[in-house]
Amino acid sequence: MAILGFLRDFPLHGYDLKNRVASLAGHVRPIADGTLYPTIKKLEDAQCLTRRTAPGSVAAPRHMLEITQTGTDQLRRWLRDPEPGFITDDNKWYVLLAFLHHLENPREQALVLARRREFLDQPAQLFFDEQGAPIPAERLESPFRKGLMQIHRSTNLTEIDWLDRQIVDLNRRAGFSVRQRDGV
Hints:
Layout: H1 2-9, E1 12-13, H2 14-26, H3 33-45, E2 49-54, E3 62-67, H4 69-80, H5 85-88, H6 90-99, H7 106-120, H8 143-173
Helix pairs in contact: 1-2, 7-8
């Protein structure tokens, strides 16, 4: 998704694309050439992107990558109906969120945000006892685990507030009239 998302912004050289993908998600999952370039080749074979030669700024010509209409359509399908991991995994969610503006229909954008909102409504269960039962934050002995739970809750509350406001605004722009907490 990140490759097509960045190329939807504007054409890029492979090296520049790698740096942008790494800046967005590489702190969690380093971007290796052995991963990026085969993925680019697959997307090229699927006619989602093309290569063209452009003059180099200092030396040899550079191979620029450009998204095609097929690639734009694929990106929009991924954004419109993301796999569950893109909703539940924070790092994948950030990638999706970085490119959600490429899904131009505000109602469709609101529906994606509502899926994340629904996920965040579920109680976080990070720690479990020997029988597999969740341990409530107040029963945690480790100050670090308590801190983690506090940070997690605070972050989620901030995100929920932002999501609620965005969903209402997007729905309004799409012609839907919803109350703040109704979401969808």
